[in-house]
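call fold(seq) -> C-alpha cells
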Amino acid sequence: MSDRILRSAFGALLLIGTLTSCKEQVTGSLGCPELCTDESATVRDTILTGAIVVDTTFIGFPRLGEDRDISLWNNVDTADVRLVARFDSLPRTYLVVGALTDSLIRRVDSASLIFTVDTLLQKATLPLTIDAYDVDTTSADSLTGALIPLFRPSRLIGSQTYSAADFKADTLRLSLDNAALFAKIKDTLRLRVGLRVRGQGSTHIRVLGNSFVPRIRLRVSADTSIKPDTVFPRSLTPTDDITIANSFAFFKIVAAGALPLPPAGQFAIGGFSGARTYLRFDIPPTVLDSVQVIRASLLLTQTKPRSVGAYVDTLTVFTQPVLTSPSVTDIFTASQFLGGARAYGIDSVRFASRDSGLKSIELVNLLRFWKLVGVTNTSRAVVIRAIQEGSTPAEASFFSMEGPVAQRPRLRLTYVPRRGFGIP
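ret:
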C-alpha cells in the first residue's frame, strides 16, 4: 500500500473520530448550536412563570376598510353577518354616441348586482338564498343598531336562490327591482344595498371585494346599441373625512355572534368580534446573555370557547412581534406596529376552537432577534391573531395571567450553558 493511500486512510479516520467526539446532546430540530464548544454541556429545561408580564385582548379586527373580503353568515341565532355596499353616485344621464348632450335616464331595465364569491375555500353544497335590501337612511347610517332594522320585507329589492351548481363559477348575479332603482335615480341619486344570506342550517358564503368589488349593472335605454351602465361602490359620507368615507363603501355588520371582551382570567383570539391578544415579556438578561437557547416555547392553556357558534372551525394563528420601542407606552398603539411572523421565523399554528388543554407556540428565533437588538430598540412583545379574524365564529380562548396559577401563560426554554471556545 502506498504512502499516499495510508495518509488518506489515516486522515479519514481522524475526521470520523473528530466528528464523533464533537457531539451535542441536543434533541429536536428547532435549533442548532453555534459551535461544538464542550461535549459535556448538557441540555437543560426551565420554565419562566413570570416571563409574561402583560396580556390584553383587543376586539374589532380587521378595522373598517382593512379587509373587504366579507363572509356572510346565517346560523339560526348564533351567527348573523351581513354586508352593506353604498352606491352614492348613481348616474342621472347617459351618453348617446353622436348626440350633442347627454340624455336623461327615464327608465331602468335588467338591473342586477354582480359580485364574486370564494369557491375555493367555501364552496356551497346546498341551495342558498341571498336577499338584497334598501338600507339607505339619513341618520346614524354607519351604526349596526340603525341598519339592522332596515333589513325588513318592505325594503326588499331583490332575492335570488343559488344551487350548488351555480357556484362552479365564482361570479354571481342578483336581480334588483328596476322600479326601486329608478326611483333612487330620480330622487336621491344613491342606493345602499344590504345583503343577507339564508339557507338550510348553517349557511355562509364569502364575498370577495379586494379584487372585484360588487357592482350594479343596468340598462338605461331600450336601444340595444347603448351599452349597459356599471356603477361601482362609493360612499360620500362622512363628508369631512374621505378616508373614512371610502372605508364605508363596502363593509360588514354583525347582527348576531360578536362576543364582548373575554372575562377576567382569559384572553381570546379570533371570532366575529375579531379578537387579538397582546403579550409583553420580561426575560432576565442572563437568559439571553449567559445561555444558548435552542428552543423557546410559549405555553398556553386553552379553555372551552364561550359560545356554541365558536365550535364550527379551526383557526390558523399568527404570532407577530411588536416593532415599537419601549418608549411607546400605550399598549393599543404599540400593538398596531407589527412585523411579519414568517420574517422573524415564527411558524403559524392551528388551534381547534372546541379543544382545550396545553398548547405551545415556538418563539426561539424571536428570542434570538431580541437578544440581537437589545432592550432599548424594540419592545419584547407579540400580538397573537387569527388569519380568519372577523370572518368566522371560531374563537380560541386561553387562561391569562389572572387565571389559575398552574394554567397561566409561561415560557419554557431548552438551552445549554454558553461556554468559551476558540481556535487553539
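The chain is about 15% helix and 35% strand.
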